[in-house]
Amino acid sequence: MAKAKKQTSNYVDxxxxxxxxxxxxxxxxxxxxxxxxxxxLEGEHVVxxxxxxxxxxxxxxxxxxxxxxxxxxxxxxxxxFLVEMQLQNQDFFFDRAVxxxxxxxxxxxxxxxxxxxxxxxxxxxxxxLGFRMDKLNSDKYYYSAKVIDEFDQEVLYPKLSYKxxxxxxxxxxxxxxxxxxxxxMYLMKHSHEMNQLANYLDKRIFxxxxxxxxxxxxxxxxxxxxxxxxxxxxxxNNTIAYAKKEALAEGIAExxxxxxxxxxxxxxxRGYDKKDISDLLGLSIxxxxxxx
Length: 292
Known about the structure:
- This is Transposase.
- The strands form 2 sheets. A 6-stranded mixed beta sheet has the order 1-4-5-6-8-7, with helices on both faces. Strands 2-3 form a two-stranded antiparallel ribbon.
- The chain folds into 2 domains: about 200 residues, no CATH class; about 80 residues.
- The N terminus is likely disordered.
- About 40% of the residues lie in helices and about 15% in strands.
- The protein is built from 8 helices and 8 strands, in the order H-H-E-E-E-E-E-H-E-E-E-H-H-H-H-H.
- By secondary structure, it is of the alpha/beta class.
- Strand 5, helix 3 and strand 6 form a beta-alpha-beta unit.
């Protein structure tokens, strides 16, 4: 049986299911989430306080699947924050984000019909991603989207925002963290290997992360839950690594086969015997016959 990879940090890994909820999903630690959101929304909105709410939301009828968010919070002004971490690669992720926010808006509109009509609170969808949304754009690590006019870029509806952080695209060194968002992304990507609060991280924001995140602070039950969370994360990473290795091997094999077929065609055109071609290139006689 393969040995589990040794934990290299003294702190809970933020990018584990347990770590995400531990740092951001507990009432006693909600200042971390407030700091994170304010870093994302700097110059746009200030979050003074939050209330955690139900992370499950039913569909339009009983046959619809439930939507489950990692975190769902409501600010002092009624604004709604849907916050999640998604490490597993997903096709049509932005479609999913639009679906989630649309369902939330639909619920909010129904609650408002008896009061102020169609007026809605602001809705923010925030996601930390462990995969690339756009494989052709490997440099963009922060997406911020609103409903805008495509001609003059004027924001038409400021109450709906999408904020997505793409960790695989973030490769800044510790000495090149120009913004607080850069610092958050560095911490998220490297928390599994850090053993102290680095000088380049803002102590006003991150000192609490390091104060509460020590593994020694966990209860035995929490420690067991954390280990299970790490095992799930490692299993996923190992599955992805194996799939990539298999795809690479298949690609190499396919490339070698194409070269052999091309060589066989040339040899046939020059009058080589099919048996000799088969022996030299490892192709069957039947395969060579089809090349005529």
